[in-house]
Amino acid sequence: MKRIIPVALAVMAVTAAACKQKRAMPQDNYYPTLKVELQDKTLQTNYSASIKGKQDVDVYPQITGTITNICITEGARVHRGQSLFIIDQVPYRAALETARANKESAAAAVATAQMTLDSKKELFKEKVVSSFDLRSAQNSLQSKKASLDQARADLLSAQNNLSYTVIKSPVDGAAGMITYKKGALVGPSIASPLVSVSDDNEVYAYFSLTEKQIIALSRQNGGAGDLAAAMPAVSLKLSDGSDYDLKGKVDAVSGLVDKSTGAVTVRAVFANPKHILRSGSSGSVVVPVVSKNCIVIPQSATYELQDKYFVYKVVSGKTQSAEIKIMDLNDGKNYIVESGLKQGDVIIADGAGLLKEGMPVSTQKPKAEVNKK
Question: What is the CA radius of gyration of the chain?
Answer without folding.
Answer: 39
